[in-house]
Amino acid sequence: MLYATEKFRKDNPKTYKAFIDGLNEAARLIAGNPEQAADIFIRTNNSKVDRNLILSIIKNPEVQFKLTPENTYGLAEFLHRVGAIKNKPASVKDYFFDDAHVATGS
User: How far apart are CA 81 and CA 15, in angstroms?
Assistant: First the structure.
């Protein structure tokens, strides 16, 4: 999960959009070509992690690379209950920007 402040998003709309577009492109690449994604990860991080391990993580059906938030509301409720956040959110839209990919988020 990544974050940005409302001020940054408002003051830098082109940068924010480019970042979201880049995340979408990366998610599509990972889903559509896990082998290439693993190779990119290894190359850009100079990783010594076994390629087969990286591929097994990428291809694991329990691991998803996407922008739509999923199953975050329970954590938000917990954080409110323990006092880590002051205001209890009414929905996922209270702590995610109102972007198209958030519309179906949870």
Answer: 35
CB 96 within 8 A of CB 4: no
The single-letter DSSP state of residue 69 is -
CB 37 within 8 A of CB 29: yes
Give backbone dihedrals phi and psi of 40, rounded to 5 degrees, phi first: -65, -45
Rounded average pLDDT per 10-residue block, the chain, 106 residues: 89 94 93 96 96 96 87 90 92 80 67
- The answer to whether 33 and 25 are in contact (CB under 8 A) is no
Structure tokens at 43: 């190359």
At 105, list the tokens: 């988020």
Closest CA to 66 of 34, 33, 23: 23
Query: Quick check: 80 and 90 in contact, CB under 8 A?
Result: no
Q: Indicate yes or no: pTM above 0.85.
A: no
Using alpha carbons, list the distances in angstroms from residue 33 to 5, 40, 87, 99, 104: 32, 11, 41, 26, 25
